[in-house]
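Reposting from the mailing list since nobody answered there.

I have sequence plus structure tokens for a pair of proteins and want to know whether others read the tokens the same way I do. The first protein:
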Amino acid sequence: MVAQKIPERLSWAVEELKIAGHERLLEIGCGRGVAVSLICPLLSSGTITAIDRSATAIDAARLRNEDHAAAGKASFRHIALEDMTDPAQSFDKIFAVNVNLFWLDAEMGLDVVRKLLAPGGTLFLFYEPPSLAGRKQAEAKLLANLEANRFEVPEVIESDASRSSLFGVIARPVRNSA
């Protein structure tokens, strides 16, 4: 098998997740499972569930990560985020890389995320717009959507790469004080 270059956006996103090893993670829009393959070696007792709307992507992700799935560290589901309705599942960290749902039509997706996050859980959204100007537009829209859907954003992060437009948003649901 020929070693494939890992896209900077994925290695950077996994680094920014600061995996402790015991977390339950959900990746939204896992594609071919590259991030899962980077995360599983960092997990001790933790697990990752990866979802994607594309059956072809899920098949490729399963194949790429068959050893991690056999070890019980990774599971894959061909499902859209809005169809994740199992209230028995909860996740400490939910993340997505270049998933447009959260800055285009965020309400339904963020409602599902709120239900799936464990108490104290965190949402990580990573994007790589084609330009720095595109980044500012995407970031502004994303921050407005998060605020409108009762998420607080304690941090916006950006890649150290000098020519990169990579950025990420760390968000948590605003909990009712009553």
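The second protein, same order (residues first, tokens after):
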Amino acid sequence: MHENIAVWSDREPTLDEELSALGEEDIFDMANLGEAQTGVPGVILISTAMGSHGPRVKYYLKAGRHQPSFSVAVSPEPRVVANSLPERDLARMAAPVIAWVAANHDALARFWWDGPDWMNDEVQGFIAGLKKV
């Protein structure tokens, strides 16, 4: 594994587990972005504030509520904060996902915090404006 990738020791919850933990009043938006939109093979899930943690994206080899994944903190210096993928998949995919988050961290942070108030055209414009790696 690349030496600048810090991994939180907790197991990454599946999307289904994370959604089940939300209360009835929790409102969020999410989108699965594929390689055509990100330049990263696989699926990157972006969302507005979801859960009690800070801004992050989830990476999956393939989409699905029960798929293993890893999360990357949205910041100028992104890092892996949780993982449930096999180590070989994490080692192979962490660097491109971290590069994508670094290239888009300001936009992703705005979406995390302000996205629930955006209209559909604003969400679509945000997604279209994300940089590929």
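Reply #1 (J.P.):
I read it the same way you do. Residues 15-126 form one domain.
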